[in-house]
Specification:
The structure holds two protein chains of two kinds.
Chain A lengths: L3 H12 L3 H15 L5 H9 L6 H33 L8 E11 L6 E4 L12 E4 L2 E9 L4 E5 L6 E6 L4 E6 L7 E4 L11 E3 L12 E9 L7 E6 L8 E6 L1
Chain B lengths: L7 H5 L3 H8 L13 H13 L1 H17 L8 H16 L8 H26 L5 H38 L2
Classes of the chains: A alpha+beta, B mainly alpha.
Chain lengths: ~250, ~170
């Protein structure tokens, strides 16, 4: 007869009332060692209704947007003042007219928009048409109440643009597809895929520094000068109102 | 018996061609390319009213459509040729004998011919940079347009044929 079973049974019986407390203590140690596992989860679950929700995000985004709009406005005013001091171009004294898109033909033989403002409202042939995202096209013909836009993608459309990063001029040529062709004037344009294309800051025909698109594909072997394919940032298929820049 | 061009309501129906071209109902497009409404109107007109009338109608329609488009290329030559050809066909055999398939094939060929004429004009006139890009886009547009035109032709052309035949023979 060995003493160990008796001893063990006695120990267990005497420890049993304290067992829950030991388990609790173990639990606290676990919480302590794991830096708050379980506790924080429970807290997060309980506090979820009071987290900063979508409304707060909207407020912040709204105020950021407002700040940026304000800043752009201020910068534009500043820019115009400086341009007037330097007498760079008279087109900077721009006037924008909002016009509704009353007909659009985007993918057929003709790629054009009809706008609900015409020569009565001061629109002229050659004015730039701007939508959310940047330049859309150029006014092709005007009658007293409506005007017609030749989109940048249309065959025969040619617009002078440049790549701001490398300061190289190029001609944006519409070829009918959704992505117009950029024909550089230099032999070595030194551009990369992903470069932004915008109107030239010295342009008098188009508004200066207007976003046009992003270079998507580069063909350095094209003759007589390299060519690139540009993804336009403005999407005419989704735009109902545009702005015409009147000189 | 009055000729078709003496029926003013029949002539006025041509106004729907530029209107529909401008509206371009989106649900009738195949990958963004709408039907060739001029072909859909000119085909029954030529079959009923003969070559001369159809050539003149093609000229007028072409002029209107060029007027509402960005003006570098013209539909006039293709529409006049089509009017002459369809008028020539219409002289042989009654227009009643035109089946669904017959109209669809004629409209398909007409739309394709119009597209080829526009493609040639774009290539020659607009100084396109590369023929490859032009052909990929042009053939795509041409096929989409001729297919959707051919699909609509039995519906639209048959309706116009019935209407005009009744008007022109009494």
């Amino acid at each position: 007869m060995s003493p160990s079973p008796w001893f063990g049974r006695y120990r267990l019986r005497s420890f049993r009332p304290f067992l829950p407390w030991f388990l609790l203590l173990g639990g606290f140690f676990f919480v302590r060692l794991s830096k708050g596992a379980g506790f924080l989860d429970a807290y997060a679950f309980l506090a979820k209704p009071f987290w900063p929700g979508s409304a707060q995000k909207d407020w912040i985004q709204g105020s950021v947007q407002l700040e940026q709009l304000n800043r752009i406005k201020l910068l534009e005013i500043d820019n115009q003042r400086l341009r007037q001091i330097l007498q760079i171009s008279k087109s900077s004294k721009s006037d924008l007219v909002s016009a509704a898109v009353i007909s659009r033909r985007l993918n057929g033989w003709w790629q054009q928009l009809e706008l609900g403002k015409g020569s009565v409202h001061g629109v002229e042939v050659g004015n730039a048409v701007i939508g959310p995202g940047g330049l859309i096209g150029i006014i092709n013909s005007v009658i007293p109440t409506t005007s017609r836009v030749r989109l940048l993608t249309a065959p025969g459309s040619q617009v002078g643009v440049w790549v701001p990063r490398t300061k190289r001029h190029a001609i944006l040529t519409g070829v009918g597809t959704n992505r117009p062709l950029l024909k550089f004037l230099d032999k070595e344009p030194k551009v990369r895929i992903g470069d932004v294309v915008s109107t030239s800051p010295a342009s008098t025909l188009l508004p200066a520094n207007l976003n046009v698109g992003i270079i998507q594909f580069l063909n350095p072997k094209a003759l007589p000068a390299p060519e690139a394919t540009v993804q336009l940032t403005a999407s005419p298929e989704a735009i109902d109102w545009v702005q015409i820049q009147i000189r | 018996m009055l000729r078709l061009y003496q029926r003013y309501f029949c002539v006025a129906s041509a106004l729907f061609v530029p209107l529909l071209t401008l509206m371009g109902p989106g649900w009738l497009n195949i990958s963004g390319v709408g039907p060739d409404w001029a072909v859909l109107w000119l085909l029954p007109w030529a079959l009923v009213d003969g070559s001369l009338s159809a050539v003149i109608a093609g000229l007028f329609l072409g002029l209107i459509l060029d007027g509402i488009s960005v003006s570098d290329i013209s539909q006039v030559p293709a529409l006049m040729v089509l009017g002459f050809w369809w008028g020539y066909i219409g002289r042989y055999g009654s227009a009643d004998e035109r089946s669904f398939l017959n109209l669809a094939i004629l409209a398909w060929l007409g739309s394709a011919l119009n597209g080829v004429s526009l493609l040639i004009q774009i290539h020659l006139g607009l100084n396109q940079p590369s023929l490859e890009v032009l052909m990929s886009w042009g053939l795509y547009t041409l096929f989409a347009q001729s297919i959707v035109t051919a699909l609509l032709a039995p519906l639209v052309c048959l309706f116009l044929l019935k209407w005009w035949k009744r008007r022109s023979y009494f």
